[in-house]
């Protein structure tokens, strides 16, 4: 009985050591990528990366959560990557909380957040909103509470002394409200951003923001947990090279929107963009 206990403990110890070694190994094929569901550009880029790595024999796990939860998980070394960090404005404060995270590269250069209205709305600046409160119902349709664009919209309401309330729910709910308003040709203002497929499907415009409540153009970057580059130098190099030009990103988002299964869409897109993918590899 004594010998059996010793043998069991020894096997258990060896198993634990092996699992720890595998989890920290440079050759580990398990990769976790955080993703905010509903953020079109992040969903598209994450599934594209997964489709490419799947072909290379990796097992990619997509973890859906809020930006704050993803960054905290990366800080705790539980999540490897996040491909949808908007800097310097939208996620600047959030990134500062986790200074140990590592920037790998920039995937898109001309991102923008702001207040968006249908093209038929005759005003062109946020400063004009108070003069048309009744037409907009004194409401700005936002997305999830805690999102960077939500904070910026609250700042815009304060900076321009708007007699408006931001109505927060979800990205999907915001887009649904926007689509319904356009069908009825009603005036509506939403917290929006580009790149997004809605700019390819609807005629929209950003209201001018002379007080810079939403900041200037931003870059979308990929961040990783602090030890990722050491554990996966080849993958760190791969993610540092992923970059989308304006036209390619617009086509990608429109393409992805036509598929309910994003994994199927990503694989189809990768198969038709081998030359671009090869430059990343």
Characterization of the model:
With 281 residues, the protein is α/β, with parallel strands linked by helices. The protein is built from 13 helices and nine strands. Strands 1, 2, 3, 4, 7, 8 and 9 form a seven-stranded mixed beta sheet that branches. Strands 5-6 form a two-stranded parallel sheet. Helix 6 (148-159) links the parallel strand 5 and strand 6 (165-167). Helix 2 packs across helix 12 (262-271) and helix 11 packs across helix 12 (262-271). It is globular and about 60 Å long. The termini are far apart.
Q: Distance N terminus to C terminus?
A: 55 Å
The gross shape turns out to be globular
For the sheet with most strands, the description reads: 7 strands, mixed
Mean pLDDT across residues: 90
Low-confidence stretches: 1-27
Strand content: 15-25%
Number of strands: 9
Q: Secondary-structure element sequence?
A: HEHEHEHEHEHEHEHEEHHHHH
Fraction of residues in helix: 40-55%
């Amino acid at each position: 009985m004594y010998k059996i206990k010793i043998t069991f403990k020894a096997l258990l110890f060896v198993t634990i050591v092996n699992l720890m070694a595998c989890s920290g190994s440079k050759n580990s094929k398990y990769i976790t990528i955080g993703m905010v569901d509903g953020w079109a550009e992040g969903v598209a880029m994450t599934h594209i990366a997964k489709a490419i790595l799947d072909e290379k024999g990796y097992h990619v796990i997509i973890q859906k959560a809020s930006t704050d939860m993803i960054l905290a998980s990366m800080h705790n070394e539980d999540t490897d990557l996040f491909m949808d960090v908007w800097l310097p404005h939208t996620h600047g404060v959030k990134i500062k909380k986790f200074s140990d995270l590592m920037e790998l590269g920039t995937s898109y250069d001309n991102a923008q957040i702001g207040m968006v209205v249908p093209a038929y709305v005759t005003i062109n600046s946020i400063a004009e909103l108070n003069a048309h409160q009744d037409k907009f119902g004194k409401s700005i349709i936002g997305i999830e509470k805690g999102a960077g664009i939500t904070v910026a919209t609250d700042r815009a309401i304060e900076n321009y002394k708007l007699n408006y309330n931001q109505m927060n729910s979800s990205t999907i709910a915001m887009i649904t409200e926007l689509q319904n308003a356009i069908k009825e040709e009603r005036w509506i203002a939403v917290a929006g951003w580009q790149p997004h497929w809605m700019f390819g499907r609807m005629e929209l415009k950003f209201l001018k923001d002379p007080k810079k409540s939403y900041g200037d153009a931003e870059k979308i970057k990929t961040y990783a947990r602090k030890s990722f580059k050491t554990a996966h130098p080849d993958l760190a190099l791969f993610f540092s090279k992923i970059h989308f030009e304006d036209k390619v990103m617009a086509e990608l988002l429109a393409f992805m929107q036509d598929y309910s299964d994003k994994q199927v869409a990503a694989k189809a897109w990768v198969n038709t963009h081998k030359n671009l993918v090869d430059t990343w590899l």
